[in-house]
Design a protein that fits this description.
CATH superfamily of the largest domain: P-loop containing nucleotide triphosphate hydrolases
GO molecular function: ATP binding; sequence-specific DNA binding
Organism: Mucilaginibacter oryzae
Bound molecules: adenosine-5'-triphosphate
Protein name: Regulatory Fis family protein
Number of helices: 25
InterPro entries: AAA+_ATPase, AAA_lid_NorR, CheY-like_superfamily, Homeodomain-like_sf, HTH_Fis, P-loop_NTPase, Sig_transdc_resp-reg_receiver, Sigma_54_int
Shape: globular
CATH architecture of the largest domain: 3-Layer(aba) Sandwich
Strand order of the largest sheet: 9-10-11-6-7-8-12
Radius of gyration: 28 Å
Keywords: ATP-binding, DNA-binding, Nucleotide-binding, Phosphoprotein, Transcription, Transcription regulation
């Protein structure tokens, strides 16, 4: 689709120069506005699909003030500004732009950023439409016939969550029903705890009578609003119930809509998140659409509930009930865990799996990035076609091209046979570029070309080959830092980072350790045939006390060893590995005098310590890589990056 770009910039020379560059690059520029007011008029008249937005504009207006209008109209925007002071950057970031270019910038950088931003915006719109469609279909397919009000609404949180994320959803119904307040609090991927009036009153620390009589609990709304971060905190200052609920459920922002039903009565949907900048104009519009789709359903259950009065004892359950509407354990194929941060990863997998979007998975070694990639592939429409894994760290620099694109027979010395490259093998499916941060700059150029065109030639072959491949890349490096240090190409980074997923380290999701450990005990007991039947809570607490630098891989190997040592019964006591955060033996006793060390120094110390114990051997059984719970190639690259001397590593 040809993009219609509006330039909002008060310096005419700069704006005109931009117009010339964009037109030359094939974009159509529908206007130049020097102030927010002019921009609003042009948006109305010209209907741009994209906006380049300066921050400080004529008439003392600010580009950031235009952002809510752009978000509400689904128009993507990039800031272009010479001002980079912290508060300007923070205000700009809070409006969720697709990019920020600091003036003066190179034409090339502008065009690359715009190209990627457009792709990202289109992918987002597509995903949003798909989610909305699924939401409507699921809503239509819901059984409205029998059951209590709680039973009828029990499936709502799962359905709504797929469309609009929340940690707590409050539904406020017209007064005079069996219950006029239901809240669903998220406790797992498709798990919610249900609270009705009595339990909500208890959570807010008031009696049921006070709760019911306090009109403020019904959220006094005109038609709707959202409050993020500081705004939400201001609300808490004068609303004691909200304050208590927010403390109880650790909520950091909210948005709500009030809907009028045909019978003149109202219901309110209030969404809460633990993430303090979760809700923007975009989500608010989505909420309005979701609420409108829900009107008929709510009307039905409200009328049904009135006709059931009086005397139908369908409510309330005295204790909060845990509702797990339609959990599908196998959906995430072996990704175990229920911590908040893992559930957030599952949400993202769910969101992106069926779209063709490229995904960049980041996180420390052993956190499960490859698992996430496998899961996205299996849940995608390409699941029947291959998932081809390429370990970029293991690609020999001189063979990158032939590995990725293949070669013809006799293309170079040693090419005795024709070879089909990884991209061709993955045609129709997915290619997983693991450890992408290890690619040499030369290889990055070659990869970039394929990603742009999805076309390449086999080495020694003159015929272009076109493929249809979805890209998933992963790295344990901070790619933004790699870009800043000149080790990773900015254009390649933009191409890959269309949908980023961060997999958190195990030390930040200790809630998952117990369930993972139990699972690994079962797995290795079965594999080794040893009758080890479980692991005690004391042992799990010990596991939680360690900080797992090798993450889940290290935990998995550790449990495997414990199963072998224990041989039968329940694992009770563990000999935990020495934590690198504690001083290693040679420094024992002198910790008080130790200067503070950076994480990198501690990591280097620990690797040297393990290497010494393994006599410098990296690979194979009992080698340093196995003990550290990472692939030898990753350890090699860590050794190189941390500048560990060769005397410590033999292979
Ligand atoms: N959530 C999980 N549930 C169960 N097993 C997991 C989970 N996450 C990871 N694992 C297991 O932990 C090990 C490491 O996972 P994986 O290889 O996906 O990590 P990674 O982040 O890709 O590591 P690297 O960066 O070193 O390549 C694997 O054996 C994997 O099966």
């Amino acid at each position: 689709m040809k993009q219609n770009i509006l330039i909002v910039e008060d310096e005419f020379i700069v704006a005109n120069d931009l117009r010339i560059k964009l037109t030359k690059a094939g974009y159509s520029v529908c206007g130049i506005a020097a102030s927010v007011e002019e921009a609003e008029q042009l948006i109305e008249k010209q209907k741009p699909t994209w906006v380049l937005l300066d921050i400080f504009l004529s008439n003392d207006s600010k580009g950031t003030d235009l952002a809510p209008l752009l978000a509400s109209k689904n128009i993507g925007f990039i800031y272009i500004s010479a001002n980079t002071n912290q508060s300007v950057l923070e205000t700009a970031k809070a409006t969720h732009p697709y990019g920020f270019l600091v003036k003066p910038f190179r034409e090339k950088d502008l065009l690359i950023m715009l190209d990627i931003a457009l792709q990202k915006h289109q992918a987002n719109l597509l995903m949003q439409q798909q989610r909305e469609q699924i939401f409507r279909m699921q809503l239509d397919g819901m059984d409205r016939g029998r059951g209590t009000m709680l039973e009828k609404t029990a499936k709502l949180p799962v359905i709504i969550q797929g469309f609009l994320a929340f940690d707590m959803l409050r539904i406020i119904l017209p007064p005079g029903m069996e219950t006029d307040h239901i809240a669903f609090v998220r406790t797992g991927y498709e798990e919610y705890e249900t609270f009705v009036n009595e339990q909500l009153a208890a959570a807010a620390g008031v009696g049921l009578k006070d709760w019911s009589e306090n009109k403020a609990n019904r959220l006094d709304l005109e038609s709707g609003e959202f409050k993020n971060g500081a705004d939400y905190h201001r609300l808490l200052l004068h609303d004691i119930t909200e304050k208590r609920l927010s403390t109880q459920f650790r909520l950091a922002c909210m948005m709500a809509v009030k809907r009028r039903l045909k019978n003149g009565k109202h219901f309110v949907l209030a969404f809460y998140s633990k993430n303090d900048d979760m809700y923007t104009e975009v989500q608010f519009n989505m909420l309005r659409r979701a609420a409108a789709s829900l009107d008929a359903f709510m009307e039905h259950i409200i009328n049904d509930s009135y006709s059931a009065l009086p005397g139908r004892a369908d409510l309330p359950a005295r204790k909060p009930s845990a509702i797990k509407p339609f959990s599908d354990e196998s959906k995430f194929d072996g990704i175990i865990g229920k911590s908040n941060s893992l559930v957030a990863v599952l949400d993202q997998i769910d969101l992106v799996a069926t779209s063709p979007t490229s995904v960049l998975i980041t996180g420390e070694s052993g956190t499960g990035k490859e698992r996430v990639a496998q899961c996205i592939h299996k849940m995608s429409l390409r699941a029947k076609n291959p998932l081809v894994v390429v370990n970029c760290a293991a690609l020999p620099a001189n063979l990158v091209e032939s590995e990725l694109f293949g070669h013809e027979r006799g293309a170079f010395t040693g090419a005795v046979d024709k070879r089909i490259g990884k991209f061709e093998q993955a045609n129709g499916g997915t290619i997983f570029l693991d450890e992408i941060g290890e690619l040499t700059l030369e290889a990055q150029v070659k990869l970039l070309r394929v990603l742009q065109e999805m076309e390449f030639e086999r080495v020694g072959g003159g015929k272009p080959i076109k493929v249809d491949v979805r890209i998933i890349a992963a790295t344990n490096r901070n790619l933004e830092k790699e870009v800043a240090d000149g080790r990773f190409r900015l254009d390649l980074y933009y191409r890959l980072n269309v949908f980023p997923i961060f997999v958190p380290p195990l030390r930040d999701r200790k809630d998952d350790i117990g369930i993972l450990a139990k699972n690994f005990v079962e797995k290795f007991a079965l594999k080794t045939g040893r009758p080890v039947t479980g692991i005690s809570s004391a042992a799990i607490n010990q596991l939680k006390g360690y900080h797992w630098p090798g993450n889940i891989r290290e935990l998995e190997h550790f449990i495997e060893r414990q199963v072998l040592i224990k041989a039968k019964g329940i694992i009770e006591q563990l000999a935990m590995p020495q934590s690198p955060a504690q001083p290693v033996n040679e420094n024992a006793g002198s910790e008080a005098k130790l200067p503070l060390k950076t994480m990198e120094e501690m990591e280097a110390n620990y690797i040297v310590h393990v290497l010494k114990n393994c006599h410098g051997r990296i690979g194979g059984a009992g080698g340093a890589a196995e003990i550290l719970g990472m692939p030898p190639s990753t350890l090699h690259s860590r050794i190189k990056k941390l500048g560990i001397k060769r005397e410590f590593s033999a292979d």
